[in-house]
Amino acid sequence: MGFFEKRHNAVEQSPSPILELVSACFNGLFKIRIYEPLNLVSTNRLLEHKWEKFSLCGGKVKEAELQCLMNIAGPEASFEVIRCKIPEKFRHEKAFSFKSIIYDDAHWIQIEDLFNLQNADVVKIGDNNDFTNSEYNMLIEHWISHEEDMFKKLEIGRKRTGALHIDWVLEDVVFLEVDGGIGMGEDEETMYCFLAKNTTNRTQTVACVYWKNNTFHMQTFTPQEFGREEEYSILKYLNEQENLNLISELKQIKQHQAEFMTTDSEELVEIFDKKCQIVQKIDELQDNGIPENSF
Known about the structure:
This is F-box associated domain-containing protein. The protein is an alpha/beta fold. It has a domain at 240-294. Helix 7 (229-257) crosses helix 8 (265-287). The termini are far apart. An 11-stranded mixed sheet has the order 2-1-3-4-5-6-7-11-10-9-8. It contains 8 helices and 11 strands. The radius of gyration is 23 Å and the shape is elongated. 26% of the residues are buried.
């Protein structure tokens, strides 16, 4: 993929990945490279330092080795696995808890794994994932309702035939179409921008998604970084209108409740289901400061 660093051909032919570690020290950066599988001695050596960057390149990493490295890596570290095959069904609770992440081989990643991202800078996922349009929508909906910042920049490669269907990716999302990139020139792709609901514990409250070079891009900004005051004002207005519509719908549901004794059972079920959906969204609104007596 275009965003992954190109390495020497010898790396690709190596049966074991080359491990490069970078650590800050008093006179600059301290680097080591390990060309053999990890063993007890080399693992103990790794524990002697606080590493800022873990980079595996080429070959096929064993599950135990990858588990070991993730156990050692701290949340502020950069963790890269490039042109290196990751074991089938690999799982680790820290796999998406690092400051910067690159997983070139993404066959093992589920969309729910990305829900665990927290305050990451850049996250890049390879194109052999199997994400669907609805799963991208799940990710966006999770970002909108999440209580804390998740990431600044997310790139997901895509081998599936055809571009994403933006109507499906942004289903039920209040968004604004913005021409040109944010601070990246007028030749950038059209971006679809939306706001986070919870702004109390977050700074990156504006998000934009776009599709370019067979890659799904999602970037998040502070309102100041977003820099488009008119578009930001429109987004806030659209979200306020959605909130008012939800409140109006709930009031109508409450009026229907008074007529329950004269309503047939199928209509009762439909009304009840709709009320449950609206109440769930109202609960999210209350978390963001809308008073209960508004309903």
